[in-house]
Design brief:
Helices cover 42% and strands 9% of the residues. It has a 5-stranded parallel beta sheet, sandwiched between helices. Strand 3 and strand 4 form a beta hairpin. The longest helix has 29 residues.
């Protein structure tokens, strides 16, 4: 009997091991199935949720965005993709600019993904960084500009899916403290998308459109240890965090509201009626942009209004005439408000990019297109900065 005990123990151990391996395989497969449709904005597939809950400190596993009470959401500090650090420790894309001013020309770029540079791999390929390089080189060799500015620094404050609401919010609570010499507002398409696809519960503050959170806080230490198991991880996320996850079957976008999310339906207005009756005092893009432009000018910064443009060859634009129409309206509003507040309006359209192959989708550009965009702004800024210096002299 005693001689058979080791064999029985080994058999039982082997069976337990096989069961554990099987359960882990099931858990891993479940995680993989629910991570195939990748949430391209905020890293919210099942594996990424597991990393958040376990407080994984690898920059590649950080969420793309961080929820904050007054700023809404910002680029997650330190996030890395494809081996390149995308977001600096102060929560925006590209090089960190110190809060304290120096003798450098300081430019702030506000906007959505077309400012952030959604379709380029590196922060240094986005138009704000390309504009910085153009201005740096020019200032060094130009006596008039060099007499006032010794260098140039550009802040890329663009956030993917950002609207006029985020631009106003983040300028008022964060970026005005940087005291920029110039503020470039590159906006319009995301507000156009919201207005084109209104929900029955449309709210003037866009809460019908926005998620409550973009990241998850880590669990306590014992719970993190349990999540080392893929089986436990899968069922934990499935039971408690599936609403947070992006699920390809439902098609929920990470910047849409979460399922069963509650919000206050305080503005019982119809967006189509607002537009048809030209009640722009109740049109969020008009209101937000007006307040933003006014604040920028009151802070003694040069306001540059650079409207978003649509790719006229994009299938999405061709099949969505209302989207094109609403963006054109936002361009018109931007121009009108720019004139009202004494800003500089820089026309930008599909044909402004000489090589049409630079357009990658309805509104985003490849690195060559980003360089082209920077050159358009560069020429305008040089002229106006020189005029400003001559006027003061």
């Amino acid at each position: 009997m005693q001689e058979g005990r080791p064999k029985l123990f080994l058999l039982r151990f082997s069976l337990i091991l096989i069961v554990i391996i099987g359960l882990e395989a099931v858990g891993y497969f479940g995680m993989w199935i629910n991570s195939r449709s990748f949430d391209w904005l905020s890293n919210k597939n099942y594996f990424q949720i597991r990393y958040m809950l376990m407080d994984n400190q690898k920059p590649e596993n950080f969420p793309r965005y961080l929820s904050l009470p007054y700023l809404g959401y910002i680029p997650y500090p330190g996030y890395k993709k494809n081996g390149v650090v995308q977001h600096n420790e102060d929560g925006y894309r590209g090089e960190k600019v110190p809060l304290q001013r120096s003798e450098k020309l300081r430019i702030l770029c506000l906007g959505g993904s077309t400012t952030y540079g959604y379709t380029v791999d590196s922060p240094y390929q986005a138009y704000p960084a390309r504009l910085q390089e153009l201005l740096k080189d020019y200032i060094i060799h130009d006596k008039s500009l060099n007499s006032k500015f010794k260098d140039c620094e550009v802040i890329n404050a663009g956030i993917e899916a950002g609207t006029s609401a985020e631009e106003l919010q983040q300028y008022l609570f964060k970026y005005r403290y940087y005291k920029p010499d110039v503020v470039i507002v590159h906006s319009g398409v995301n507000d156009a998308l919201i207005a084109t696809n209104p929900q029955k519960d449309f709210q003037l503050d866009y809460t019908h459109f926005r998620r409550r959170s973009f990241n998850l806080d880590p669990l306590t230490t014992p719970a993190r240890w349990l999540l080392k198991s893929y089986f436990i991880s899968f069922f934990t996320i499935r039971l408690f965090y599936d609403n947070f996850a992006y699920n390809g079957k439902t098609g929920r976008d990470c910047f849409s509201i979460q399922q069963n999310q509650h919000f206050c339906k305080w503005s019982q207005l119809n967006i189509d009626s607002i537009i048809d009756n030209k009640q722009f005092e109740f049109y969020p893009f008009y209101r937000n942009s007006s307040n933003l432009f006014m604040s920028i000018v009151e802070d003694s910064s040069m306001l540059v209004v650079f409207p978003n443009a649509l790719n006229k060859q994009s299938e999405f634009v061709v099949n969505n005439k209302e989207y094109d129409k609403m963006n054109s309206l936002n361009v018109s509003i931007s121009k009108s408000l720019s004139e009202k507040y004494g800003g500089i309006f820089v026309p930008f359209a599909f044909d402004s990019i000489t090589d049409h192959t630079c357009w990658l989708d309805d509104c985003h550009l490849n690195p060559k297109g980003e360089q082209n965009k920077a050159e358009i702004l560069f020429r305008v800024l040089i002229d106006h900065l020189k005029q400003q210096i001559q006027f003061k002299n």
